[in-house]
Amino acid sequence: MHPLICIQVLKRQEKFYMKSNIYILLFITCFTLLTISCDKQEPLHADPPKVVRIRFAINTTKPLEFVYKDSVVAVGLVDNSGSNTSATTLLKIEGQNGEIQIREKGSVNIISTRAIETTPFEQAFAIYYDGSKIYNQLITYQVKGYASSGELEFLLDGNVIETASSAIDKTLTVLINENTTRELQVRKKGTTDILITKILTSSPTSGQSLSFFFDGTSMVDNIQINPPANMANMAINAQFKSTITSTLGVFTGGNAIDLVFYTRNKTTNVIAKASPEIRITLPTNGDFASFELPPLPGANFEYKFDICARGLNSSPYDVSAAAVKAIALNEGKSTLAGTAIQFEAGQSKLFLIKDARQLRTSPAPISSIFIGQITDLSQYFK
What we know:
disordered N terminus; transmembrane; 1 helix; elongated; Immunoglobulin-like; 5-stranded antiparallel beta sheet; 6-stranded mixed beta sheet; mainly beta
């Protein structure tokens, strides 16, 4: 082929390839733009963080730290009086929510967490820590009573939280979770026998109580001192227990005795059986019984009483094994301490009545009398 003809053929082929490459490049560009336009576009800016204020009401036996994103943002301090402390912090929450971790100061172990939301701005948490577990609620529990002997231990879920003796008036602070219960037990120190068990609830947060009397062996709860139905009278809540177990006399009164009342003129020393008769039945098992005494004739009078067999005017004691075998009713004549009741209109009293033996030498023959002596516990239950 002629050289000129070859050159022209080559030029034509070069133009063809150039146009083909342009078309291919144009196709690729259009395809790429179309693909990008179909993709979901990401926002140019992320949602800004939300700021919230967190308030903590804290009651703890050990210092606490509140950690957010590896930084301590608040601390919980110990108040030795048992009162609550508080802490407040501002937090930036990114995303939908965050989490605060709670740990003891100086520890890396997380004992609990709390979720933080982006709304509302004000958020509050109650944190109550007893050294082993965190609770979200606190209640107060009133313990009021009297232990005539021995020392008592108060246990919460099996752990001793308080000890007390004699007159007891304490307010216990109890940590608890909402809609749950905890168990309070009482035992005599040095023993494992439980005297009484009470279930504590999360509601109400105040007003729950234990009112009791412990005689050294057994416990009676729900002790109440209520005002008299007739305010001209005096209300009495009394317990009787016999202590006579020796050969000087044996109590044979069974499950109940009667108190038969007399009046004594303190000026003239004249003693007379109350008319109409005042006869009050008391159980002998340690339970309390309530009754009212009517007004006396005057301020110079006082009440006396005898212990009688139930329904009878006889003594509920057996002295057949005693050296002195004669027995007589007291008829309100004993002058020993605790054998008289001073009347107070409108007042309420809590009495423990125990029996005791005396010898009466006159008139002959020498005889045994059995009297009741009162211990007034009213002041410990008001």
